[in-house]
Amino acid sequence: xxxxxxxxxxxxxxxxxxxxxxxxxxxxxxxxxxxxxxxxxxxxxxxxxxxxxxxxxxxxxxxxxxxxxxxxxxxxxxxxxxxxxxxxxxxxxxxxxxxxxxxxxxxxxxxxxxxxxxxxxxxxxxxxxxxxxxxxxxxxxxxxxxxxxxxxxxxxxxxxxxxxxxxxxxxxxxxxxxxxxxxxxxxxxxxxxxxxxxxxxxxxxxxxxxxxxxxxxxxxxxxxxxxxxxxxxxxxxxxxxxxxxxxxxxxxxxxxxxxxxxxxxxxxxxxxxxxxxxxxxxxxxxxxxxxxxxxxxxxxxxxxxxxxxxxxxxxxxxxxxxxxxxxxxxxxxxxxxxxxxxxxxxxxxxxxxxxxxxxxxxxxxxxxxxxxxxxxxxxxxxxxxxxxxxxxxxxxxxxxxxxxxxxxxxxxxxxxxxxxxxxxxxxxxxxxxxxxxxxxxxxxxxxxxxxxxxxxx
Length: 457
Prior knowledge:
Layout: E1 7-14, E2 28-33, E3 36-42, E4 55-58, E5 63-66, E6 68-73, H1 86-95, E7 98-103, H2 114-127, E8 131-134, E9 136-137, H3 150-154, H4 159-164, E10 171-172, H5 181-194, E11 198-200, E12 212-213, H6 216-221, E13 225-226, H7 229-245, E14 249-251, H8 257-266, E15 274-277, H9 279-283, H10 289-292, H11 305-317, E16 322-323, H12 332-335, H13 352-361, H14 368-383, E17 398-402, E18 407-408, E19 427-428, E20 431-437, E21 440-444
Helix pairs in contact: 7-8, 8-11
């Protein structure tokens, strides 16, 4: 009797399976039923007695990895749809190999009540199979004066709650730091009681105000710089508050060598402390700013080669737990302004994996399995999602990648509305061939859309 299934992913080398991954030289066949991985069989599909009328995804011997998870994106919706909206952001996520993304609260209105959380949840479910989880604000309107309705957001009936037990993926004041320490402690204690991670933007606004890293390049261009100390001060404060409150603090977009070292020391007695960085901080430095201009303007800014190497070392030794993109798109006309006038932020969802693979895996800094650990398993652990692995019984979140063929990054082809990237023209490897989320093919590199059932790729 033939097996019945909805989809077959055939002839793939699984990385990130049970026990850390299969033997990568072995080909496997993945059977998917009702959005779940029903079975993984060694070998190709020949002689397995599989039905021929279900959806077939041809792996052609390529690697299959778990769907990527990005805990730090900006979708600009509600409030700024000319920059990005939920639909375009989810398309960009699928094109980048992401099956779960967490959007930051600096929207208009701010994500500070259950109503806004529900708006994002409903619109996300209607827009794409990719899972969209909201991250709630720490304070109302992100004004830093009154705590947001964290308990109300936590209790919201959302897809996030169904899968993690929490209505939101965490809380954050991203785009700024909450400097009122008394209020910060109140927020941390609330988050601890609810079991939520606090995803903190690490920047002391008293030292901010510039547009690129403070140093040789800022002086040569005659623009005000942002010192690394602006980040490290908040990192050190958050470490102290984590010890005092026992809250789970997750440090966002780490970019500076001193911050990496402070986190490394703190982890000796603070195992619950976690940190992220973004691909631009370990692949680029401030030296590209004179050539790229505002395309390379983000917050925190690109820093020095010493900082870049420290971030890489932090990823390699586990000081930095995971990689997030800090996807922050803007309209082309906004990024076309002068360095001082243009907004901070660059798109990252469609370049995150390839840049990370090319910068970390090809030179041998991380193995592919270690990269997947930092882009899928550990992000899943942070937000309490049962994922980040290709295993029978788990949701069918599978990405097929092409490791060998180089390609040039072209922002004009992004699904995101943000087309201006500091990686424009960079030759990379690690192309996303297709993305499957919950057993639905939501991206393939040829069609850029869901294919129809029973139609071979």
